[in-house]
Amino acid sequence: MLACSVLLLNAQHLTKHKKTFPDVNGFKVLKCDFHMHTVFSDGNVWPTERVIEAYNEDLDVIAITDHLEIQRQKQDITSSGDLNRSFVLASEVARKHNILVIKGTEITRVVPPGHSNAIFIKDANPLFNPTKNEKPAAAEGYDTAVNLAVEQGGFVFYNHPFHNLADDKVVMPEMVDKLIKEGKIKGLEVINGDRFSREGFNWAIARNLTLISNSDVHTSMPLALSNHDADHRAMTLVLAKDRSLDAVREALDNKRTLMWWRDNVIGRKNLLEPFVKACLPVTNYSFDKNQLTFFIANTSSQRFVMEPISTDNYFIAHPIVLPVSSEAAVSVGIKGISAGDVTIRFRVMNAWTNYEEPLIVEYTFKK
Asked: Per-residue confidence at 348, pLDDT binned at 50, 70, 90?
């Protein structure tokens, strides 16, 4: 009886809140967060808690990216001095919960040049700048750290370029732009937590950078979501060949990412359009004389709002709202087309190619 009680006391029950997206053109859509902190820098939770939070939100991939130069809890945490320690602790738990963990770190300097994340590195220790611990100098060692990360095979992206919280203006340090042109910084964190940067998006597109969206969470994730009044964290949707770290890296190198933020999905049109069409397939349709009836299903965990674009040939009065895992039946009168194809077009009001122009999708029906 005593043994049974011990087993019950040690049992754990974790709930996964499933978030699903269909495959797109043969690629799996992986839910990723490449920017988060623990007590090993300036975060408030233990590395293993970041894994549990990721499991709870049904993420596939995370990167623990503690600041090397900011270690606010070092007086209270006894460690080996290994700056990879948070990754090691997270990885031990992640294997049990089928979460992929990327080794990473945040290269921390004041503006300019600012902060960058280096992921897929082999060892964080050489990237540390010990001369200005806690208060890193403006540019001291920034390019050295980026170069060391790249030499290790790392993928470097520039973090939250809107350094001034009062506006959306992107800071363009000369050193960062030089490293981008040299192909050493390959991505831009357009979305950071609760903030989206329109200027940052345009900047990333102009420089052909991988679009990144992250939580940059420091406190507990449930508290962060509560403060932001959000149902899910900001994350990067990676279109990968399979569910592996190698596939994630290949996708990042080839810019196959979308950004999921506050029930909006944002990205390049060549990826966003097939993604939305995969999420919102027409499951059936029929014609009865000049009346077209069709059914659109939402096969994803994203709520979609579709605003019809009426023409002289058809009129749809109201937007179509498709909650998660739902279906809508649409009936519309068609005039002026006696034979051939009928094309119905919609603006998807929470799918954006630059967060100013909603994606337009069309469905063609053979009459």
From this structure: very high
- Report the distance separating Cα 142 and Cα 173, nearest Å: 12
Q: Cα separation of 278 and 351, whole Å?
A: 13
CB atoms within 10 A of CB 27: 19
Cα dihedral: 103, 228, 320, 365 (round 10): -10
| pLDDT tier, 80 (very low <50, low <70, confident <90, very high otherwise) | low
Angle between helices 47-56 and 221-228 (to 10 degrees): 60
Mean pLDDT of 195-209: 92
Q: 114-167 pLDDT, tens per residue?
A: 789 999 999 998 887 655 544 444 346 788 889 999 999 999 999 988 766 566
- Hey, is 150 helix, strand or coil? helix
Amino acid at 286: S
DSSP string, 72-121: TTTTT----S-TTHHHHHHHHHHGGGT-EEEEEEEEE-PTTT-EEEEES-
Q: How far apart are the C-alpha atoms of 232 and 131, rounded to whole Å?
A: 38
Q: Which domains does the chain have, with CATH numbers?
A: 14-262 (3.20.20.140), 277-366 (2.60.40)
Q: What is the largest CA-CA distance in the chain?
A: 80
Q: How many CB atoms lie within 10 A of CB 219?
A: 13
Concatenate the DSSP letters of all residues of 243-255 into one string: SSHHHHHHHHHTT
Total-model pTM? 0.91
Choose among 25, 102, 91: nearest CA to 65: 102
Q: Which of 37, 159, 129, 31 is nearest to 86 (CA)?
A: 37
Output the CA torsion sign for 93, 60, 36, 44: negative
* CA pair distance 279, 53, nearest whole angstrom: 25
Nearest to 110 by CA among 134, 132, 133, 139: 139
Q: Count the neighbouring beta carbons within 10 Å of the beta carbon of residue 268.
A: 16
